Amino acid sequence: MTPAAERALATETPVRTRTLGRMRIHALEAGLQRLDGGAMFGVVPKPLWERRIPADARNRIPLALRCLLVETPDALVLVETGLGNKENEKFLDIYGVENGPSNARHPDRLQEAIAAAGFDAADVGVVIDTHLHFDHAGGNTFADAEGRVRLSFPNATYHVQRGEWEWAHRANERTTASYLPHNFDPVMEAGRLALVEGDVEIVPGVSVYRTPGHCPHHQSVLVASEGETACFLADVVPTMAHLPLPWIMGYDVEPLVTLESKRALLRRAADERWLLVSTHDPFTPWGYAVADGKHVRLEEVG
Question: So what's the architecture of 3-300 in CATH?
C-alpha cells in the first residue's frame, strides 16, 4: 500500500450512520494502527492475505480503530473506545498509530468522531468494552493537559466480562503487553465499571455475546431493533478478510476456541441476516452476512 493510500485511510470520513429498526447506529473512525501482517493472519501464507490488505515495508498492515455509537431510547451506548492518547512516541511508532485529533478541542480522534455525530462525551451513558486490550479499551481514559489520567466518559457506566477483568490482572509474558492498567484500573477506582457474566442485555436492544478465543472472555455486541440485528464483531473476526473460518490471528491465545466461536457466530449471522460491524477492517466498516455454500461471504452496503 502506498503512503498516499494509507493517508487516505487515516483521514477517512469520521462517521458513517445508518438506521437499524428504530435505532440509529454510527460507525466512528477513531484512527489507524499498523500491526504485523503475519501476526494478524497466523498460519495463512502472506501471498494470500496480502491480496486482501497489503503490507508496508515493515510488514505491517493498516487497521482501523473503529467504534460503534448506538442511539437507543434508554441510553447513548458506545461500543469500544479505541486506543486513547496516553502512550508515548516510541509506542506510537512501533504500532504505527495515527489517532490524533485535528484540533486541541478533543483528546483523540474518537472524541472528534463523537462530536461529528452530534454528541459529546458527557452524553454517553453506557460504554461496552469487548475486551481490555489497549487498542480496544485505551480510550476508556485520557491524559489531560497536565498529564492526569481521567475518565473519557464521565457519566457512563462501563461494562466488561468479569473474567476479562480478572484475566487482565493476571497477565503473563504472553499477554502482558496487551493490558495497560491505566486504561481500565481508573474506571474501577471511580466506581464506574460493571462486571458482567455471560450473555446479558446491557440496555434494551443491546446485549453482549461471548465469543472467546482471542482471549478467554472476549465478547461481541449485538444491537437489535424491529427484527434487524447488527453484530459488532471485535476480535473474533477482526477484519472482513478474516471471515474464512481458518483465517485466525496469531495473537489469539486459544485459536481453536476462536474457530468454534467464529463458526457459531457466522452461522447465526447468515441465518438471521446480521449486519456485521468490523472493528479493524481498514476499508469496509460493515456489511451483511450471506451464506454461500459452506461459507459466509460479505454483502457490502453503502
Answer: 4-Layer Sandwich (3.60)
